[in-house]
Amino acid sequence: MGTSISYHSVDVGGLPIFYREAGDRDAPVILLLHGLPSSSRMYEPLLSRLSRDFRLIAPDYPGFGHSAAPDPLSFPYTFDHLSTVIRRFTEMLDIGRYALFVQDYGGPVGFRLAMAAPERLDALIIQNAVAHHTGLTRVWDRRKAYWNDRAGHEREVWESLFSIDANRRRHVGSDPNPDAYNPDLWEDESAFLSRPGQAQIQLDLFFDYRTNVASYRRWQRWLRDYQPPLLVVWGKYDLSFDSSEPHAYRRDVPSAEVHFLDAGHFALDTAADEVATLTRSFLRPLHTARPPTPRRLCQRVTSLASVEFSLTTQAGSTQTQMETRQ
Q: 51-60: string of b/e by CB count within 10 Å (b at 16+)?
């Protein structure tokens, strides 16, 4: 495939899932999981910078970007469900092992993937995603109120999370140089959020975010027990996630590599070159130390230890069945 970016869609349990891809098919894989309310488009700067060394795959979750956005009445928008779809997506593409690059919503999706199949994880790269209560700033107080009284706080949460002003604040944060940010970033997100059905999808999914907070201790235990190779790249102008979070990750994984950048919540907005350099420098020694697995052998190993998912999207419910093959 080379260094150019290509655009695809694959059927996952009846859902068309869009993804961007770059790099050689036999190169080490980086699976990139996007944040709110973005899509795989946020990773274009990395795809163009890292494709000579890696195979990069960036999907859109259901309800985001160019992927299918089924009605919430037939498709529950929860992080468990999104993670199931993305895991099945990796199996459809015959991806064996991969490094995970996660940002914002990509954190909850990625932790579920990593814990379900740690044998497939080469490394974990975290860019402004949270797994500790101390990582949530005070702006989360009103959001937590929404989890306790959805009807009473729904409009307030929409304005604070999904309005065009909120989208701009999420990108620029407290950066003293706001002129460095392309306004197309939040203008395009706002256009996406204005599509029919998006309000219900995003409010449903954010209401489920409470399950992520409830899972923090379990994610921390996994980090402490598993000790994955970990790179934390942090945009220090983020207003949503506290700058103490990278240090919390290092307490869980003492060998973690931590870098603070002059960037916001979406560090690739203004620091793509730095993020790409750090990612390449972090991953190259790992793949040098472990010879790459031939693609066909990797597929065989995956099939022998596979977990089969049957996704049914019916009115009112989605059943996920898991059958482990010996």
A: bebbbbbbbb
Domain ranges of the chain: 6-324
Bridge partners of 31, per DSSP, are 57, 100
Whether residue 37 has a cis bond before it, omega within 30° of 0? yes
Q: What is the pLDDT of residue 244?
A: 98
Contact between residue 85 and residue 19 where contact means Cβ atoms under 8 Å apart? no
Q: Which residues pair with 257 in a beta bridge?
A: 231
Per-residue pLDDT tens for 141-154?
989 999 999 999 99
Let me know how many helices (H) and strands (E) the chain has, helices first.
Answer: 12, 10
HSE on the CB side for 324, CA within 13 Å? 4
> CATH classification of 6-324 is 3.40.50.1820, yes or no?
yes
pTM of the predicted model as reported, rounded to 2 decimal places: 0.88
Q: Whole-angstrom Cα distance, residue 177 to residue 236? A: 13
Residue 312, helix vs strand vs coil: strand
- 62, 105 in Cβ contact below 8 A? no
Catalytic residues: 265
